[in-house]
Amino acid sequence: MNDENEKIQVRKEGITRGLIKLSRNRLSLIGASFLLAAILLALLAPWIAPYPEDAGGAVHFERQLKPPSFSYLLGTDESGRDILSRLLYGARISLALAVVVLTIAFFVGVPLGICAGYYGGKVDQVIMRIADVFSSIPAIVLALAVSVALSPNLINSMIAIGFVWWRSFCRLAYGETLSIKQENFILSSKSLGASDLHIMFREILPNMSSTLLVKLTLDAGFAILVGTSISFLGAGASPPTAEWGLMVAYGRHYLPYAWWPSLFPGLAIFATVLSFNLLGDGLRDFFGVEVE
Amino acid sequence: MHFLRRLLYMMLVIVGVSMLMFVLVRVIPGDPIAKALGQGADAASIKKMRDQMGLDQPIYIQYFRYIEGITRGQLGMSLVEYRDTAEIIKDKFPATLELILASMTLAVILAIPLGVVSALKRNSLTDHFNTLISLIGVSFPQFWSGLMVQLFFGYILAFLPITGRISGPPPMAITQFFLIDSLLTLNFPAFWDALVHLAAPAFVLSLAPLANITRLIRANMIDEMSKDYINVSKATGMPQAVISFKYMLRNAFSPAMTMIGFMIPLQMGTAFVVEQVFAWPGIARFGAEAITTNDFNGAVGVTLVISVAVVVTNFIVDELYGVLDPRIKLRR
Predict the structure, then answer these.
(1) pLDDT per residue over A196-222, tens digit each?
(2) Could you tell me if residue A75 is inside a domain?
């Protein structure tokens, strides 16, 4: 019992020290703060957006394509809608996309990867060969095809990307399982008669949690990149949704005369993805893990 | 034996891809033929065309017919361009390949000095700056960075063309790579023309691999630094530049080769948006159009060709890895 307490004590100290270490990494801190702000802004969008009605299909002919000014901080788009308001609502979509995609990918990919690694043999062959098929089609291409097959809209594009994304979680969990499986504590659990399910999800899974956390953080950004690309190509969100990729797609028709409708949404995507990468990079250094 | 098994396994993956895509494009809601023929088409002509394209058959028969077509070098008629998909791909593949190879070359050329300098000046301001740059490199939505490059270099500074692969007549076709063909035929105006058209899309496409390769070279160089042979070489009075670039870089670069191999699929995917932005006449732009307009033969054809390219590249890279780094062979 005492031993157990000591262990917990040590672990707690480790976490505190880790948090201090992590907070010294200025770049990660910037990433984390930006993400926190983005989440807050997204949640508060209906209250803080200067023109909440512009998130939808409002049309104001009297103020089409107005450059940034005091009344419209980031200018207005081709329908006269306030770009700032639309960006705030767009944050909800992109963050939701990351959550949906990663949830699907995690709950499909990780169990499959652990099973393949743990059981080996035929189970390994079947699961990993299917993962190989999925990996040999670029994510954007397959997600585009699945999204079209489901009939293109925002929700379907999220499902489509999740459907594509599981393979990378599967591979990661597979690799981790192969190495954790070799450890002595697994052998001792086995000899004590622990069930396969217990070993896989109570012993192996917790031991890869830091790797998975880093992967989730880094992939959140990449999922947003793929999601906005699919909307940009016209197989995701449909107008008048305030989706960042779609806003760039519409804004590009007014280049070079009006640069603001395409510049700002792209900048929002860039800043969000960069923040996830900064945070993920810091976490990677912190845990000392390598994620492919 | 090892080689044969890998070959067999490659075939298996490609068959898997073909089945997956084949089924996927056929569950797309709506009749692609009716859509392609437009509103004016009557039921009889739609039915006639459906029969012609074999869509009245059960799906497994359609699949076997498709495979049989491949053995004759056909990939089925595209509903976007109304000719065989294989022909379209043959026409457009070189453009995409030229773009991707140019972007990877650019990425490697820039990544080597960045990675080496970061490793040598580890934890310096330069190193942190380079880390930040590589994180920035992978964070751009490429469709947007493409537009911004067009806006800045094409419209504001006006020294790069906005879209396309060449403005004048293309050089005589030998390799279908405009840069190489124009040099071979000593057509220097065409070379310059092709080069300025290639510059912007290749740059946009090179950002992500540039970041990844820099990071990898840095990490590998740092690993190499702690090895004994470095100390020995230093003790013999060998100049640091020779140690860094001749010995360490060689050892640090060979793992980066696999990475470059794995990046090809990523690049093919990114090309889907970059070619769209720059109106680049390659297979990725055709593929995006085929997929979004229910051109089922076009969609399957392009995806199949891309995944063959991916699988074959990975295979070559794996084999090449053993040649570049004999230590790997011993471990197998």
Answers:
(1) 999 999 999 999 999 999 999 999 999
(2) no
Candidates B18, B122, B133, B144: best to mutate against A (most CBs of A within 10 A) is B144
Structure tokens at B203: 């740059």
Interface contact flag, A136 B17, Cβ < 8 Å: yes
Give me the architecture of the B92-331 domain, per CATH: Orthogonal Bundle (1.10)
- Give the predicted TM-score (pTM) of the model: 0.91
At B208-253, the pLDDT tens digits run: 999 888 888 888 888 888 888 888 888 888 888 888 887 888 888 8
In a domain, A61, yes or no: no
Residue B27 burial (CB < 10 Å; 0-12/13-18/19+)? exposed
Q: Chain B contact for A214, CB < 8 A?
A: no
> A69 in a domain, yes or no?
no
The CATH number of whichever domain residue A191 belongs to comes to 1.10.3720.10
Give the tokens for residue B112: 């080597």
Nearest by CB: B13 against A136, A248, A259: A136
| Residue A280 structural domain | 14-39+86-287
Give the nearest partner residue to B12 out of A129, A134, A149, using CB atoms: A129
For residues B230 and B70, what is the distance between their CA atoms, to the nearest angstrom?
54
Are A28 and A51 spatial neighbours (Cβ–Cβ below 8 Å)?
no
Q: How many domains, chain A? A: 1
